[in-house]
Write a structure and sequence with these properties.
Number of helices of chain A: 12
Shape of chain A: elongated
Largest sheet of chain A: 6 strands, mixed
Structural class of chain A: alpha/beta
Oligomer: homodimer
CATH topology of the largest domain in chain A: Rossmann fold
Radius of gyration of chain A: 26 Å
CATH superfamily of the largest domain in chain A: Response regulator
CATH architecture of the largest domain in chain A: 3-Layer(aba) Sandwich
Strand content of chain A: 5-15%
Strand order of the largest sheet of chain A: 7-6-8-9-10-11
Number of domains of chain A: 3
Order of helices and strands of chain A: HHHHEHEHEHEEHEHEHEHEEHE
Largest interface: A-B, 64 and 64 residues
Distance between the termini of chain A: 74 Å
Number of strands of chain A: 11
Amino acid sequence: MPKSITITEIARESGVSISTVSRVLNGNVPVSPDKKERVEAAIRKYNYSPNALAKGLASRQSMTIGVILPDISNPYFSSLFCEIESAAHDAGYSILLCNTLYRSGSDAHLEEDYIQMMIDKHVDGLIIAGGQQDLIHPAKTYLAAIKRAASTLPLVMIGENIDGISCLFLDRERADGIYDAVKYLSSLGHKRIAFLGGEDGVKITASRVASYKKALSSLGLPVDENLIVLTNYYAQDGYRAAGLLLERGVSFTAALCINDSVALGSLRAFHDKGLHIPEDISLISCELFHSSEFFTPRITALDRCSSRFGRLVIQKLLNVIQNQEENDSLDISPKLIVRASCGPVPENN
Amino acid sequence: MPKSITITEIARESGVSISTVSRVLNGNVPVSPDKKERVEAAIRKYNYSPNALAKGLASRQSMTIGVILPDISNPYFSSLFCEIESAAHDAGYSILLCNTLYRSGSDAHLEEDYIQMMIDKHVDGLIIAGGQQDLIHPAKTYLAAIKRAASTLPLVMIGENIDGISCLFLDRERADGIYDAVKYLSSLGHKRIAFLGGEDGVKITASRVASYKKALSSLGLPVDENLIVLTNYYAQDGYRAAGLLLERGVSFTAALCINDSVALGSLRAFHDKGLHIPEDISLISCELFHSSEFFTPRITALDRCSSRFGRLVIQKLLNVIQNQEENDSLDISPKLIVRASCGPVPENN
DNA sequence: TTATGTCATGAAAGCGCTTTCATGTCAATA
DNA sequence: TATTGACATGAAAGCGCTTTCATGACATAA
């Protein structure tokens, strides 16, 4: 590896002090045209680019933002991330990404380690999405790590408020659109509507289940715990959830799936038992990824515009980092995309 | 933000020099037990953790690895990334991730900018996967940027060799399993087998199409360019590809889809035209993600063990970074997972 | 006892930048 | 002409670490 050239070489080459080079580099202080010219020539000549580590150390800004999330291969998080990364890049920041779920060994303190690592690397801001059971029962040490982080750097948590931690909380579930979904099913005559997928003890699931129950009540429909089957967020979990629901033998004519993957899995499970969608059962996905449009049948789903949410996250974080004024103007209310997975209640019900 | 405490405070607190603190921190040089004890106590007391920026600047190691890829929301890349991140973390490195595809504005030099940024941030190693048309027709400036990177830091390119660039090339397509897929279809009696999805002018696609043609030839089957429809990698592209193939009016009884997403889309397109899988058309996905198992019908697919490939990438990169000896032992040959999307040739053909 | 070597330790010089502060230049003002 | 102020500039002091080098303590060998 060739030794990379530094600001000192540029200063020598162009016959000015390193202060002056720094000034033309950052362009915030006037520099006489001829010197500026010479410096720029030297920079071009040597293809010089400042060492970000040194710059970060001296200026106390790393121009890096940390993102901690459970599973980037989950479309929920990857679409969020894409927007975050893009928005961050537009603002000159790069992203340090940590994935907490996908692990060969089990490491109880993994997330805390990651938080500490972010602090050590002096990220200018930190975004934590999900993880640690989405904070319904966070470990004490994890909570302590978050607190420490919040007192050290600008922190955005995607999820609900945690008592005693002062950072920015952005709630994707503020408006979850589930009422619209239930109402739609109700308008088709469905009364016994199941809820499939999601993880017990996780806030995002709890939040959606709560909305589901609330919607049922406000529409005068019965709430039956037997109709709720929590497993997890992936296709295999949808498959499992639908199977368990069927085993319970409770009657139902429609189901809300927590997301597209779960919908895909349940679809498969119902299909395997000879049940048809939407003739026998109506299905709605509570969170559209990009594929449910192509399932058989096409699945009616809630579009939560999660990508736009990512941009909002960065906006908010930069507000804090750069002490900018608020411009909270993004509308991210979910919309129900009606496709072909819902129908009237079958006659024998 | 409270001023974070430094090695100097720890030295003062424990009554030793900062050199000694550094030595107990890094543990490579003997330190007398009592001093070591005192330093460790001070570290615990203040919850001290070294500034990685300063450490990186002084030691010329950032303990960071850069990853540049086109689209992390594409399962191909996200599964690769998960493994990379996990393996890197196990070795003490964190990951700077750049996503080049997902952009609001169009930026011709985006990938070059990202490469430069990685160099500036002094990553200890760089992994570039895909991008820039997967390097069949890379822009001159992009090639120059890669060359510069390769001469500055350990670089792994995932893809085929590029002339004139000396870095480590890891070829995921070395064994693509496509022969097995074609042979399987052939054994079922299929003679006219289409190829759907993938992007024209992209190496990974070209490579798979070449394997497909080669397999056809070696099995004595005709190669017909009309049976090849290149669009892109996502579900909507599979939908489009199948539609275009049908429009061409050429006869075929089976199709290879470049990946699960494309398979999902084509499935949908065939279904919409009243064609049944596998009765009318047999379908194989050339790259299994995690969902094809749940499609209707379950799709026969090639499992490329892409996650294991990620670990291999890090292994190789660390070999270079740390001058370790080679231990190239990972078997990543693809396997054909036979499911329910292939059948015998329909009678009227 | 003296000479030699081993070893823990601290001082100090960087790593490549930013930023403060002092300085010298020059034009505008009195 | 003398004075003031504005302004471009460079020297130098950090930022928080690592690492070299010199030193002094101590044990060992002669």
